[in-house]
């Protein structure tokens, strides 16, 4: 797994890249992951930034860990606090795509960056992200991984769409491509 400094570098580089990937997908205007569409919808309704809503949702999801007896690690807490900050910073820095090709570049780039970031921060071995920990807790209650993941993702995607978050072809691309891309990156950056 590596030394503590290398694990910390992997964790924080992964979280920074994850925030960039979120920003790329949201900036594309073509749709993003279910959780990010949910945060976007909440941001539209509250007037707060998307990053702030990512932090709030992450903290609220961690409260659901309590009855599931999940234990957070440094990576969990860092995920809650930093991904939203990195996403807001990247949203502020990224130029708006003014052509469909750039929008698709943002979408595809976002998927690749999120997949790579996921392998980095999970591979640091410092705790699951809040949403993944919720899924793990539901699996421990007896749901299959597939059903737990589907129920969570479908619920937040529907809520995000109803709140005004952008759900579109980019969402579909994310759903179909992020798993295979993450698997590809584990060849070069093993998870354990």
From TrEMBL:
Keyword DNA-binding: no
InterPro entries: YczE/YyaS-like (IPR038750)
Bilayer-spanning residue ranges: 12-30, 42-66, 73-94, 100-122, 158-178
One Pfam family here: DUF6198
Keywords, alphabetical: Membrane, Transmembrane, Transmembrane helix
The keyword Transmembrane helix is annotated on this UniProt entry: yes
Coiled-coil spans in chain: none
Official protein name in the record: Membrane protein
């Amino acid at each position: 797994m590596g030394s503590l400094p290398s694990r910390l570098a992997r964790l924080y580089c992964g979280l920074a890249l994850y925030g960039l990937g979120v920003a790329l997908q949201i900036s594309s205007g073509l749709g993003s992951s279910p959780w990010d569409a949910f945060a976007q919808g909440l941001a539209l309704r509250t007037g707060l930034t998307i990053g702030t809503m990512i932090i709030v949702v992450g903290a609220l999801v961690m409260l659901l860990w309590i009855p599931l007896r999940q234990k957070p690690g440094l990576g969990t807490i860092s995920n809650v606090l930093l991904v939203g900050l990195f996403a807001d910073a990247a949203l502020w820095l990224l130029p708006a795509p003014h052509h469909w090709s750039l929008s698709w570049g943002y979408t595809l780039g976002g998927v690749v960056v999120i997949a790579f970031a996921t392998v980095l921060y999970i591979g640091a071995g410092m705790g699951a992200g809040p949403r993944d920990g919720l899924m793990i807790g539901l699996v421990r209650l007896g749901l299959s991984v597939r059903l737990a993941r589907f129920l969570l993702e479908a619920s937040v995607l529907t809520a995000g769409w109803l709140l005004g978050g952008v759900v579109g072809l980019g969402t579909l691309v994310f759903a179909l491509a992020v798993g295979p891309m993450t698997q590809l990156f584990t060849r070069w950056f093993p998870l354990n």
